[in-house]
Amino acid sequence: MSKRVGRLLVSVCVGSGQIVFGAAGVRNTGQIGPVSCVPFRHLTNGLAVVAVRASGRETVFLVDTGSTSTVVDERLAKDLGLASAGDVIVETALGPEHAPLVRLPLALGTRLPTVVQAISQSMAGVQAVDPEVRGILGQDVLGRASWLIDYRRRQIEIDESGELRRSLTGSVVAVDWGGARPIVAATLADGDRLRLVLDSGATGLVMFRPPRTGGAAVFAPFATRGATVVVRQFQTGALTVGGVTLMPGFASLSAGYRAAAGEDGLLPTTFFDAIYFDRDRSEVILNPRR
Can you give the pTM of this predicted structure? Predict the structure, then answer.
């Protein structure tokens, strides 16, 4: 069983009256009525990880809204003796990769218990940042309910009844779930219109094509779940999504990734204070307020 020793995390599920305590966000969740709270902790690169129960074992998974499928560390899959479910070709930022599928019983907090066909794959890239991370939560789990990821309070709130949604205001933006990934419309300062995947597994703006205008390209390291490679980066100006204007500074060009139709790149959810994903209405609320 993974055990995390660190500072005490205090997470408040606003409106529920429930205070949730967990050591560095690795254990314990709270639930009052229809909203379930799951505290998370940040990796050094800003990404969020949460406690899950994988085939009955408590462990730590990365939250990745840009992944259509859940991923389990191939070594953990072997340790748990997970049953095979075939294989699949996975599109990654570095190109297509072949990987086996396994049947993984999984639960996040007090909600969303399920069995998914998870991709069994190396997690070397993520584990270079934190060796305790043993998997990735994808949209096959996250997409089962509406939910909020709040980077200020460091918690996820699962909102199966819509009660939380009714208490929020903010910039409402339509979402296209065409490829099971949340795509929003965005515009660069030069008028270049983009369709970007809201990706909690990305640490910086990624584009699948060069921007229409931009500074000279430079080369920089780019981390994926399996490795770190060198990619080209371009300077970018302001990026507007709904009523929110961002200053990403630069974009990494991922030329090897075979993007789905209608996808121009990846927009990190960490660029926002919080995002509410409304599956029923196919929209998100950016930087919601209560």
Answer: 0.84
